[in-house]
Specification:
The complex is a heterodimer. Chain A has no helices and 11 strands. By secondary structure, chain A is mainly β. The relative contact order of chain B is 0.32. Classes of the chains: A mainly beta, B mainly beta.
Chain lengths: 115, 118
Protein backbone atom coordinates (compact mmCIF):
# COMPACT_ATOMS: atom_id res chain seq x y z
CA UNK A 1 0.00 0.00 0.00
CA UNK A 2 1.20 3.51 -0.74
CA UNK A 3 -0.82 4.88 2.11
CA UNK A 4 0.90 6.74 4.90
CA UNK A 5 0.30 5.73 8.47
CA UNK A 6 0.23 8.25 11.27
CA UNK A 7 1.26 7.63 14.81
CA UNK A 8 -0.19 8.09 17.35
CA UNK A 9 -3.85 7.73 16.37
CA UNK A 10 -4.79 10.15 19.12
CA UNK A 11 -2.82 12.71 21.12
CA UNK A 12 -4.05 14.77 24.02
CA UNK A 13 -1.94 17.60 25.45
CA UNK A 14 -2.18 20.86 27.39
CA UNK A 15 -1.92 24.28 25.82
CA UNK A 16 1.67 25.41 25.54
CA UNK A 17 3.05 21.90 25.12
CA UNK A 18 4.56 20.65 21.90
CA UNK A 19 2.77 18.05 19.79
CA UNK A 20 4.67 15.56 17.65
CA UNK A 21 3.00 13.35 15.08
CA UNK A 22 4.76 10.76 12.97
CA UNK A 23 4.05 9.34 9.56
CA UNK A 24 5.49 6.25 7.89
CA UNK A 25 5.08 5.16 4.30
CA UNK A 26 6.18 2.28 2.13
CA UNK A 27 6.95 3.42 -1.40
CA UNK A 28 9.10 6.00 -3.18
CA UNK A 29 7.65 9.48 -3.09
CA UNK A 30 7.92 12.80 -4.87
CA UNK A 31 6.76 14.70 -1.84
CA UNK A 32 5.03 14.36 1.49
CA UNK A 33 2.34 16.72 2.63
CA UNK A 34 0.62 17.41 5.93
CA UNK A 35 -3.00 18.50 6.13
CA UNK A 36 -5.27 19.54 8.95
CA UNK A 37 -8.99 18.81 9.19
CA UNK A 38 -11.35 20.38 11.66
CA UNK A 39 -14.38 18.29 12.50
CA UNK A 40 -16.89 18.21 9.66
CA UNK A 41 -14.77 20.39 7.40
CA UNK A 42 -12.47 19.97 4.43
CA UNK A 43 -8.71 19.64 4.64
CA UNK A 44 -6.34 22.54 4.89
CA UNK A 45 -2.86 22.20 3.46
CA UNK A 46 -0.11 22.86 6.02
CA UNK A 47 3.25 21.97 4.54
CA UNK A 48 4.69 20.19 1.50
CA UNK A 49 8.17 18.75 1.76
CA UNK A 50 9.90 17.39 -1.31
CA UNK A 51 11.76 14.12 -1.34
CA UNK A 52 15.12 15.92 -1.57
CA UNK A 53 14.39 18.10 1.46
CA UNK A 54 15.02 17.09 5.06
CA UNK A 55 13.32 19.78 7.10
CA UNK A 56 10.84 22.57 6.59
CA UNK A 57 9.36 25.24 8.85
CA UNK A 58 6.18 27.27 8.73
CA UNK A 59 5.35 29.38 11.75
CA UNK A 60 4.93 27.01 14.70
CA UNK A 61 5.12 23.97 12.42
CA UNK A 62 8.24 21.96 11.74
CA UNK A 63 8.27 18.99 9.39
CA UNK A 64 11.09 16.55 8.93
CA UNK A 65 11.50 13.89 6.27
CA UNK A 66 13.78 10.87 6.38
CA UNK A 67 13.51 9.05 3.08
CA UNK A 68 15.91 6.32 4.21
CA UNK A 69 13.48 5.40 6.98
CA UNK A 70 10.42 6.35 4.92
CA UNK A 71 9.14 8.51 7.73
CA UNK A 72 8.16 12.07 8.50
CA UNK A 73 7.25 14.00 11.60
CA UNK A 74 5.13 17.06 12.23
CA UNK A 75 5.95 19.15 15.27
CA UNK A 76 3.57 21.83 16.49
CA UNK A 77 5.26 24.04 19.06
CA UNK A 78 3.50 25.99 21.81
CA UNK A 79 0.18 24.36 20.99
CA UNK A 80 -3.13 26.19 21.35
CA UNK A 81 -6.66 24.96 21.88
CA UNK A 82 -7.37 26.09 18.31
CA UNK A 83 -4.87 23.49 17.06
CA UNK A 84 -7.36 20.78 18.02
CA UNK A 85 -8.05 18.89 14.79
CA UNK A 86 -7.15 15.77 12.83
CA UNK A 87 -3.80 15.84 11.09
CA UNK A 88 -3.13 13.74 8.00
CA UNK A 89 0.04 13.00 6.14
CA UNK A 90 -0.23 12.35 2.42
CA UNK A 91 2.35 11.09 0.01
CA UNK A 92 2.70 12.01 -3.63
CA UNK A 93 3.88 8.85 -5.36
CA UNK A 94 6.47 8.52 -8.04
CA UNK A 95 5.81 4.89 -8.87
CA UNK A 96 4.90 4.04 -12.40
CA UNK A 97 1.15 4.11 -12.71
CA UNK A 98 0.65 6.78 -10.06
CA UNK A 99 -1.75 9.41 -11.25
CA UNK A 100 0.13 12.68 -11.41
CA UNK A 101 -0.93 14.81 -8.48
CA UNK A 102 -2.63 11.97 -6.67
CA UNK A 103 -2.09 11.75 -2.93
CA UNK A 104 -2.24 8.77 -0.61
CA UNK A 105 -3.61 9.70 2.80
CA UNK A 106 -2.98 8.08 6.13
CA UNK A 107 -5.63 7.52 8.79
CA UNK A 108 -4.73 10.67 10.66
CA UNK A 109 -3.85 11.70 14.20
CA UNK A 110 -6.59 13.27 16.29
CA UNK A 111 -4.96 16.03 18.31
CA UNK A 112 -6.77 17.51 21.30
CA UNK A 113 -5.27 20.52 23.01
CA UNK A 114 -6.80 21.34 26.39
CA UNK A 115 -6.91 24.96 27.55
CA UNK B 1 -5.63 32.34 -2.92
CA UNK B 2 -6.46 28.79 -4.05
CA UNK B 3 -10.02 28.68 -2.77
CA UNK B 4 -12.27 25.75 -3.56
CA UNK B 5 -15.98 26.06 -2.98
CA UNK B 6 -18.11 22.95 -2.53
CA UNK B 7 -21.89 23.07 -2.56
CA UNK B 8 -24.14 22.06 -0.93
CA UNK B 9 -22.59 21.59 2.48
CA UNK B 10 -25.36 19.30 3.64
CA UNK B 11 -28.03 17.27 1.92
CA UNK B 12 -30.78 15.19 3.48
CA UNK B 13 -33.01 13.37 1.06
CA UNK B 14 -35.10 10.28 0.50
CA UNK B 15 -33.81 7.00 -0.84
CA UNK B 16 -33.91 6.89 -4.64
CA UNK B 17 -33.13 10.57 -5.10
CA UNK B 18 -30.20 11.70 -7.22
CA UNK B 19 -27.96 14.30 -5.63
CA UNK B 20 -25.54 16.63 -7.40
CA UNK B 21 -22.53 18.10 -5.62
CA UNK B 22 -20.57 20.96 -7.16
CA UNK B 23 -16.91 21.74 -6.71
CA UNK B 24 -15.59 25.08 -7.96
CA UNK B 25 -12.13 26.57 -7.97
CA UNK B 26 -12.77 30.25 -7.34
CA UNK B 27 -9.45 31.92 -8.04
CA UNK B 28 -7.47 29.44 -10.09
CA UNK B 29 -7.93 27.05 -12.96
CA UNK B 30 -8.04 23.42 -11.91
CA UNK B 31 -6.76 20.97 -14.47
CA UNK B 32 -7.47 18.10 -12.14
CA UNK B 33 -10.05 17.62 -9.44
CA UNK B 34 -10.31 14.72 -7.04
CA UNK B 35 -13.40 13.33 -5.35
CA UNK B 36 -13.08 11.63 -1.97
CA UNK B 37 -15.37 9.89 0.43
CA UNK B 38 -14.73 9.91 4.16
CA UNK B 39 -16.34 7.79 6.86
CA UNK B 40 -16.36 8.96 10.50
CA UNK B 41 -12.90 9.02 12.04
CA UNK B 42 -11.44 7.47 8.89
CA UNK B 43 -9.05 8.56 6.22
CA UNK B 44 -10.04 9.94 2.83
CA UNK B 45 -10.88 7.34 0.23
CA UNK B 46 -10.23 8.50 -3.31
CA UNK B 47 -13.23 7.78 -5.51
CA UNK B 48 -12.16 9.28 -8.81
CA UNK B 49 -9.85 11.69 -10.55
CA UNK B 50 -11.44 14.20 -12.85
CA UNK B 51 -9.61 15.95 -15.66
CA UNK B 52 -11.14 18.85 -17.54
CA UNK B 53 -12.58 17.80 -20.86
CA UNK B 54 -12.06 14.07 -20.43
CA UNK B 55 -13.69 11.15 -18.72
CA UNK B 56 -13.02 10.65 -15.04
CA UNK B 57 -10.77 7.87 -13.82
CA UNK B 58 -12.50 5.82 -11.15
CA UNK B 59 -10.80 3.87 -8.41
CA UNK B 60 -11.31 0.15 -8.17
CA UNK B 61 -14.62 -0.70 -6.58
CA UNK B 62 -16.27 2.64 -7.30
CA UNK B 63 -19.32 2.31 -9.56
CA UNK B 64 -19.11 4.66 -12.51
CA UNK B 65 -22.84 4.58 -13.14
CA UNK B 66 -23.56 5.29 -9.50
CA UNK B 67 -21.19 8.21 -9.10
CA UNK B 68 -21.30 10.34 -12.23
CA UNK B 69 -18.53 12.89 -12.56
CA UNK B 70 -18.45 15.77 -15.00
CA UNK B 71 -15.56 18.20 -15.34
CA UNK B 72 -16.82 20.49 -18.05
CA UNK B 73 -14.64 23.50 -17.34
CA UNK B 74 -11.38 24.40 -15.64
CA UNK B 75 -13.27 25.72 -12.64
CA UNK B 76 -16.13 23.28 -12.13
CA UNK B 77 -16.51 19.58 -11.48
CA UNK B 78 -19.71 17.89 -10.38
CA UNK B 79 -20.39 14.59 -8.66
CA UNK B 80 -23.88 13.15 -9.02
CA UNK B 81 -24.88 10.33 -6.73
CA UNK B 82 -27.60 8.58 -8.70
CA UNK B 83 -30.51 6.81 -7.03
CA UNK B 84 -28.93 7.30 -3.64
CA UNK B 85 -29.51 4.76 -0.88
CA UNK B 86 -28.76 4.88 2.85
CA UNK B 87 -25.41 3.15 2.33
CA UNK B 88 -24.34 6.14 0.21
CA UNK B 89 -24.62 8.38 3.24
CA UNK B 90 -21.18 9.80 3.88
CA UNK B 91 -18.99 12.89 3.80
CA UNK B 92 -17.89 13.71 0.26
CA UNK B 93 -14.95 16.05 -0.31
CA UNK B 94 -13.49 17.46 -3.49
CA UNK B 95 -10.05 18.88 -4.09
CA UNK B 96 -8.40 20.68 -6.96
CA UNK B 97 -4.92 21.10 -8.29
CA UNK B 98 -3.88 24.06 -10.42
CA UNK B 99 -2.33 23.98 -13.83
CA UNK B 100 1.34 23.35 -14.32
CA UNK B 101 3.74 20.82 -12.89
CA UNK B 102 1.42 19.57 -10.22
CA UNK B 103 3.46 16.60 -9.15
CA UNK B 104 4.70 18.78 -6.30
CA UNK B 105 1.66 20.90 -5.64
CA UNK B 106 -0.75 20.75 -2.74
CA UNK B 107 -4.36 19.87 -3.26
CA UNK B 108 -6.88 22.54 -2.32
CA UNK B 109 -9.97 21.15 -0.66
CA UNK B 110 -13.59 22.14 -0.52
CA UNK B 111 -15.40 22.09 2.80
CA UNK B 112 -17.15 18.84 2.05
CA UNK B 113 -20.76 17.74 1.65
CA UNK B 114 -22.52 15.73 4.33
CA UNK B 115 -24.95 13.46 2.50
CA UNK B 116 -27.67 11.73 4.51
CA UNK B 117 -30.07 9.40 2.75
CA UNK B 118 -33.19 8.48 4.67
Amino acid sequence: SQQGEEDPQALSIQEGENATMNCSYKTSINNLQWYRQNSGRGLVHLILIRSNEREKHSGRLRVTLDTSKKSSSLLITASRAADTASYFCATGGRDRGSTLGRLYFGRGTQLTVWP
Amino acid sequence: GAVVSQHPSRVICKSGTSVKIECRSLDFQATTMFWYRQFPKQSLMLMATSNEGSKATYEQGVEKDKFLINHASLTLSTLTVTSAHPEDSSFYICSAVGQGAYSNQPQHFGDGTRLSIL
